[in-house]
Amino acid sequence: MERKLILEDGTVFHGKAFGSPVGKVGEVVFNTGMTGYQETLSDPSYCGQIVTMTYPLIGNYGINRDDFETINPSIFGFVVKEACDTPSNFRSDESLDEFLIANDIPGISDIDTRKLTKILRKHGTMRGILTDAGEGEEGALQKIENTPLLTNQVERVSTVKPYVAPGRGFRIVLVDFGMKHGILRELSKRNCHVTVVPHDYDAQQILRLKPDGIMLTNGPGNPKSVPQAIEMISEVIETVPLFGICLGHQLLALACGADTSKLKFGHRGSNHPVYDFDTKRTYLTSQNHGYAVTESSIKDTDLELTQVALNDKTVEGVRHKKYAAFSVQYHPESSPGPDDTNYLFDQFLQNVRAHKVSKQEVL
Ligand SMILES: NC(=O)CC[C@H](N)C(=O)O
């Protein structure tokens, strides 16, 4: 079966249909990771987006039961050059096609993903539609026009009720804006007792849980679409150590008075170099974001810049000068991908411990 991807600028790509037959409008973005398509497909930060993989062969190691970042994928569509439907890997449980069908995600293959990526790099990410080969272009463009980008993605992917992943160590509240399982896994690995709470929990509800530390997860969309979280952070930052990842980083920065803006085509991939001013080292990081903290907005706040992206010099990390709060724009829990920055979870827990010591609540 044939299928088309049409961009809002009128560019049409003819390809083959795979995955679910549903038509979908979303923001078309690209990811440069050579592996990790299962994690990409299941990362809630992609809610509302149609993701193009620049690596030309996708699906070759199948889909397995272990590598999900969430069990409810919310990605809107998947674009590849070649989709392998005969996966070969001892962990593979199903093919990419089977997975997409079961999760209502439309896919298109056999298009020139290099050409598409060059368009997005030149003109910036834009809306697009995955649709039947028979659909007229005018009608498709009209559908794109009538479908604005989502603004409520966090609400769509966050947990509705709090739940606990028990542990004997520090008590961490993890605010779920679209949590990747990897973050919970890193905390559990370090014996934390984790309470995952919905995105709209306010400061009082969180403080009542008496957390030793608070983590702010990744999540989809514009950080300014989650104003209640910004308010919550500004109210808890004085009293509890904080660590923010990706959307959590952007929210922490906004809560401290900095600003965020949308990047032309974002950072999505697993080999983004980031320079750390403390260690004077460059780390390879896994990334997936379309917005970033604006560097010039940091100087009038109590934040300091800790890390910067080497590709385009955008902000990758900040730290509060007075409180035990820091955050990074990339994914230190990344799996797959480099685990160079996994130490940040230990750093957060050191802050938590130091804070308890200062309150003479030593474990
Ligand atoms: N992975 C994330 O948390 C992404 C953050 C935010 N949605 C952005 O696109 O910039």
TrEMBL record:
CDD domains tied to this protein: GATase1_CPSase (cd01744)
EC number from the UniProt entry: 6.3.5.5
Catalytic EC class: ligase
One GO term of the biological process aspect: 'de novo' pyrimidine nucleobase biosynthetic process
UniProt: L-glutamine binding residues: S45, G219, G221, L247, Q250, N288, G290, Y291
Pathways involved: Pyrimidine metabolism; UMP biosynthesis via de novo pathway; (S)-dihydroorotate from bicarbonate: step 1/3; Amino-acid biosynthesis; L-arginine biosynthesis; carbamoyl phosphate from bicarbonate: step 1/1
Catalytic site positions: C246, H331, E333
InterPro entries associated with the record: Anth_synth/Amidotransfase (IPR050472), CarbamoylP_synth_ssu (IPR006274), CarbamoylP_synth_ssu_N (IPR002474), CarbP_synth_ssu_N_sf (IPR036480), Class_I_gatase-like (IPR029062), CPSase_GATase1 (IPR035686), GATASE (IPR017926)
Pfam family of the protein (one): GATase
The UniProt record lists the keyword ATP-binding: yes
Reactions mediated catalytically: hydrogencarbonate + L-glutamine + 2 ATP + H2O = carbamoyl phosphate + L-glutamate + 2 ADP + phosphate + 2 H(+); L-glutamine + H2O = L-glutamate + NH4(+)
Keywords, sorted A to Z: Amino-acid biosynthesis, Arginine biosynthesis, ATP-binding, Glutamine amidotransferase, Ligase, Nucleotide-binding, Pyrimidine biosynthesis
Gene3D superfamilies: 3.40.50.880, Carbamoyl-phosphate synthase small subunit, N-terminal domain (3.50.30.20)
GO function terms (MF aspect): ATP binding; carbamoyl-phosphate synthase (glutamine-hydrolyzing) activity; glutaminase activity
Assembly behavior: Composed of two chains; the small (or glutamine) chain promotes the hydrolysis of glutamine to ammonia, which is used by the large (or ammonia) chain to synthesize carbamoyl phosphate. Tetramer of heterodimers (alpha,beta)4.
Similarity field: Belongs to the CarA family.
Protein name per UniProt: Carbamoyl phosphate synthase small chain
Protein encoded by which gene: carA
